[in-house]
Specification:
Number of helices: 13
Order of helices and strands: HHHHHHHHHHHHH
Number of domains: 2
């Protein structure tokens, strides 16, 4: 690798990191405005036109807040834990094909790294995020923060299994661990059809992985006064905040890559082939790259809206319900999904359309049946004691 290639790689990394952080900033504005509309209230509308400068105002506020380190905290672990949270959220993006912009040498300018074990890399990186939360709760020397860290560890371990099973169904369907090949295999049909059950399992497990509502028990204000980040302020708190949102958008991007065809959209290559004789191949490749990137981001925005919608409408579950859902509902659903995928792959190897329809129907039936087994409110009887009337 020459020094020019190294410089290009470094520039790509910087652009990707800056794009992810900028996306995080304005995703917070999108979420707050959407929540305000869904809950019939006024959102941020003071900083800039329509609140457009609100993320910048929030960043300045957090940057200039007083930075306090608790006297009894484990200082170095306390200071490093925000980095353990935000770095895994940023490096998820490197193996995702964000679009398709041919570089003329068989590569893709919109994918930073193409590795043979891309799916294993994603699973490994997503599981690292819990370390930041767990050690932040321990290093703060605060009992509420410690409870939040313990909850995070148990929650992520529980839902990692279901998440892995949801991804395993896609790997079995595509026969590859490479993310770009999984996208290529979805040229005729997106995997949301044959892997509908895996898609549902993945979305729920990913929501729990990024500790978003209704699974945000690691930072439940009513019980933990803020949880693992209670003792953090200024930019250290902002880094935890940043990691949660960047990882949320990144997990939605992973779902798009695995189940919704990635950057693929009907008509892209037809338009590309028609533009080549008109404007030349380099410009046609640029148009294809920008349009495929737009299609990818549109799908990510749709799933992100669903995440905000869930936060606005679904109340927080109890901790026992959280554990029951992970071990007694999602884990069996994931096992059923890989079993159905394996059986259909053996019985109908030459009829992918029939296998996809059968898989979709079975998945829908399993989801309906499992929804009746989900978290339920307790039914506790109340015994009234009748006091005898005093004479």
């Amino acid at each position: 690798m020459s020094w020019i290639d190294i410089v290009i790689l470094v520039v790509k990394c910087l652009v990707l990191a800056l794009a992810a952080t900028g996306l995080f900033a304005y995703f917070t504005l999108f979420e707050r405005r959407t929540l305000a509309r869904l809950q019939n209230r006024v959102g941020p509308n003071r900083a800039g036109p329509g609140g457009f400068l609100q993320p910048i105002a929030d960043a300045l506020k957090l940057f200039f807040k007083e930075d306090v380190v608790p006297a009894m905290a484990d200082r170095w672990v306390y200071l490093l834990s925000p980095a353990f949270a935000v770095i895994p959220a940023l490096i998820i993006w490197v193996v995702l094909p964000l679009g398709y912009w041919p570089d003329g040498q068989g590569g893709n300018l919109l994918q930073l790294a193409s590795i043979d074990v891309g799916i294993l890399y994603l699973l490994a990186v997503t599981s690292l995020g819990v370390y930041g939360i767990a050690i932040a709760g321990w290093a703060s020397n605060n009992k509420y923060s410690m409870l939040g860290g313990v909850r995070a560890s148990a929650q992520v371990i529980s839902y990692e299994l279901a998440l892995g099973l949801g991804v395993l169904g896609v790997v079995m369907q595509a026969g590859s661990f490479r993310t770009e090949q999984i996208v290529e295999q979805q040229a005729g049909m997106w995997y949301i059809v044959p892997q509908f059950l895996g898609f549902v399992v993945f979305l729920i497990a990913a929501t729990a992985e990024v500790v978003r509502a209704p699974f945000d028990l690691v930072e439940a204000e009513q019980e933990l006064v803020g949880g693992y980040n209670t003792e953090y302020g200024s930019m250290k708190f902002a880094l935890f905040f940043m990691s949660e949102y960047i990882k949320l958008v990144a997990m939605n991007a992973v779902a798009v890559t695995l189940f919704l065809g990635g950057w693929r959209f009907p008509g892209l290559f037809t338009l590309h082939s028609e533009l080549i004789p008109m404007i030349g191949e380099p410009l046609a490749n640029a148009v294809l790259g920008l349009l495929s990137l737009g299609a990818f981001m549109l799908k990510v925005a749709l799933l992100s809206f669903v995440s905000v919608w869930v936060r606005a409408t679904v109340p927080r579950v109890r901790y026992d319900q959280l554990m029951d859902l992970g071990w007694k509902v999602l884990l069996p659903m994931g096992l059923v999904n890989i079993t159905v995928t394996a059986v259909l792959g053996v019985l109908l190897p030459d009829q992918p359309l029939v296998a996809a329809v059968v898989g979709f129907v079975i998945g829908a039936v399993v989801v309906v049946v499992a929804s009746r087994r989900g978290p339920r409110p307790r039914r506790e009887g109340v015994t009234l004691v009748k006091k005898p009337a005093s004479s």
